[in-house]
Amino acid sequence: MRLGSPAGLLSRSPPKLKNLRYRHRTRGLPFSHAEFIAFNSPFTLDDLVSQLRFTPAAVAADVKVAFRRFLTYRPINEFEFFFESIGLPPSSSPAAASYRDIFPSDEARLLASVSALVHFGFPWTKLGLLYREEPSVFSSEPRLPRNWGIFVIVDEAVIAENLKYLTKLGMEEQKVGPFILGCPDLLGFDLENPSVAMPEYLNRGGLDKNEVTSLSQRYPYVMGKNKLGNLPGMMRAMDLHSWFISRIWDGNYHYLSSSFVSAAPHDTAIESGFLQGLDRVKRLKEQFVDNKLEFLLGIGFGENKITVRTFSLINSTKDQLQEHFDHLLEMGIE
């Protein structure tokens, strides 16, 4: 009879406790870590236990003996237990395969990063969210967050969106995770709705005034208002993404705060020209006006006359425009 089968008569508790003792005593993991792993990896444990065979008369003592004997002669890949315990599905074995060893206890940086995160309040079972988005967090020197409580109260989707936003801004993927750990209060920022005004925002960001004037002349279609959520597209449209992300990386992430963004004045003449043009187009009952405007703003256009004239000349839907745009990017055209 297989202990892991539905017909198994023995409790799962002995294997879990044996798993806990093995990780704490034999592998030298801190007790709390061993406990988290042992009691949050049921599928991997079931798979392991299903390899043990017993007679119908087997009792709990037989489980302990069989488990000890199995672990003695058949080393197991403990990363599979670890990854399941932090919230990754059991099928995430490729993640375990990314480590040359099979014992997490031998990965000093991994344990240091995990210990730091857990110590500062990050739920163990949600560590997988960070691993999915930025595995480099677990292989770099741990940077202890100052406002650690935000990891507990911020929704998973918000964390994922913020990580994605920094990547879109141009930050290297392997740096995003460590950067977030160094300034977790960034996760409390609204990176979507605040209004950004160009070129005034560039002036506040420390760009040389002559350069700002030159950019206004070279990229007039970017000028005017836009949402902060579209800032990555605006920076790329002006070829400023490398400069801007370097400013953010150097400690100026407050450039993304609503207070900093809203403090920049805006050109009322540009705004007036945009609103008049938009009203005129809508009175002509053009199709897909809002969708086309949303697409153009997303790729870096600002709220100005040029933008109004541009979406008046295109007839595709937002999805069709996005498909064509993505195709151009795949071809290397920026």
Automatic annotation (TrEMBL):
InterPro entries, alphabetized: MTERF, MTERF_sf
Gene Ontology terms for molecular function: nucleic acid binding
Name of the protein this chain belongs to: Uncharacterized protein
Keyword hit for Transit peptide: yes
GO terms, biological process: DNA-templated transcription termination
Keyword line: Transcription, Transcription regulation, Transcription termination, Transit peptide
Highest taxon listed in the record's lineage: Eukaryota
Organism of provenance: Ensete ventricosum
A family per Pfam: mTERF
The keyword Transit peptide is annotated on this UniProt entry: yes
Family: Belongs to the mTERF family.
